[in-house]
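So, could you explain this one?
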Amino acid sequence: MTALFRRALLSDYFVLGLCALYAAAVAPFTPGFITAGNFANILATMLPLLLAALGQTVVLIAGGIDLSTSAIIGLTSIVGAMVMNDDTGWLARSPLAAIAGVAAMVGLGAMVGAFNGLGVTRGRMPPFMVTLASMMGFSGLAVWLTHSKAINALPATFTLLGGRTAVACGLVLAVAALAHLMLSRSLFGRWLYAVGHNPRAALISGVPVAGIVFSAYVLCGVLAALAAVLYTAQAETGSPVLGQRVLLDVIGATVIGGTSLFGGKGKVLWTVFGVLLLKLIDNSLNLLSLSIFTITMTKGAVILLAACLDSARARLGAT
């Protein structure tokens, strides 16, 4: 029995099994849970969260953490809307407005990621402190730029991403496939795992540790900005507080999936399963009309359990 539990705990599909068990357990008590419409809703809410969680996965594998994801989502949402909205946008009603807006969002996300990466590598500051300061600073900047007001009248070519789940799904699948290939088949991926596992040994072996860590934070910023593209398109508005409650879900889904908080361990597939489980929990509790406080407490308990399982996996993997 102990050997069976160990194999299950270390399996790549452990969290997927938990998803199936959870769905089977709550379905009889949750009206409307097992319906095509509800599953489509779960998929739509999964997509932007998965993009942000993939960025967090890369950083965690490298042995860091990024708390600024929610700030990047809010700031890039506002800047993108300022570029492309049809009323006061810098490129208002231009055929290139949507493309320029998305490019501005992704570029800004990369810049914030580079800021975090420089603070960690050149400044030699703890990732927690660097990204916490970024979260506070860039969140405040997003609010200051708009005085807490949302920006509406986004072009229809942009909001199409939010209304057409198939289009957004294709984008996310492409990004996830590229991330999988990067982590499993590229030299950069091998270096990323090496740095997260033992940065000193990686440096002695000739791995450019600082460059790998810096790149991980830039990638995280880019993926958070892409998540902001989908969140903004779904909401059809640019808002400085768009990602205010996303951080818990991003880190939680990544850790639930099995990416280690200790670095050097993680997979794209694990993160997909972690996002799915968290969204199943979120969706079912919303259908039961529970309060936001109850939902947050429940997700917090699940994330704590996932952290405990992460420690158990680390101990079992070492034996």
Observations:
- DSSP finds 14 helices and no strands in the chain.
- Residues 48-244+260-265 form one domain.
